[in-house]
């Protein structure tokens, strides 16, 4: 009714102006421009303040559906108890937890944890992303933040619930440090509004709201956002350990036909550094490979092939020529030999099959998730990295560019030895060491380890040649075959090749 009255008043006013002889051309031009701007703003979503929000009536996702991450799940459950038992908390004089920040690498399950939190607390769940709040128009982000909290309360009332959880993914886009954006103040205004809304959350409200945010760059967040009273809990969601990887694999393969020979514990031990997303992809790729082989079940070889595919990519169709194949076999055999000599049982597989940007590779067993290394362990890793190039030197009298990545990693480990006080310099501050001296100490360590690696290669040249011959004939050797090959004589070698 109000719109009709306003429209009638405008028509009446324009008619009167035309009657008294007023030129309506400027007003008509302004009106047309206003309509055009209105259409453009609607198309860009400027006026659709709440269109980006995804409202989930009830999350059916549970913590039991998330493999591993036992510590983050327990921390979240403890925090959610204050939301579920808000009255008891208020009687004890406990202020409500206003925010929980989930931090960790991509693919570790931060979004899944937020969904499970909503299901655990029987709360209305709203999900959005930090990028949805930032527009070129000033004031839109702040308005959207206000709309987000308003929508959470309205949906809780509609669903007859007294609690709601708002989840903001990639909050570093919205909550970056103020003053870091020189173009305009839209970012800062949006963050300021979020801070105001969080400060307004109290125990006295009919609808209890908890904000859960996720980021893999907590170092970019504004300090005002991280202080107690806003994000009260910071939960680290890290890469899963071996037990966690096994639990995740079991979850992602429960709807897939696994063969009786499948050993998920072995796959879990070989996937050090994999996130939950990687493991889901591994299970999916294994099923695809089984389908490609027209196999009714997923076998262990399919899962192992999937591990290689995720790490290095698909096999390349073009086979290297004989000369290149021989050099690659020499290089990879050197890595494998030195690895087995220094760390018996460490090689899982060595191959000269091209994948992605790698012409060949050695995959190592990871018996346990290791976070601390001694000097001798770092030196062994460096020797294994140098072994490929030194093997080429010993048998082909010339190195190739294939060792570039090996040298880069070897230098990083050497710098780690120096920076952690494990070199002859003892405890040092890397920033205060003259660059020339820093370079010389690194070169001294590398030269010493090169000599040690060369001695290992020279002492086992016959074994190295046997490994090379088998690699050129079969293209792939698993760890068990490699260790047996290092102990056989020439007659057995010929039988293996045949």
Structure description:
It is a single chain. The chain has four domains: about 40 residues; about 180 residues, Rossmann fold; about 70 residues, Orthogonal Bundle (Helicase, Ruva Protein, domain 3), CATH 1.10.8.60; about 180 residues, Peptidase M41 (Methane Monooxygenase Hydroxylase, Chain G, domain 1). The protein is α/β, with parallel strands linked by helices. The termini are far apart. About 0% of the residues have low confidence. The strands form two sheets. It has a six-stranded mixed sheet with strand order 1-3-4-5-2-6, with helices on both faces. Helix 10 crosses helix 11, helix 14 runs antiparallel to helix 15 and helix 14 packs across helix 18.
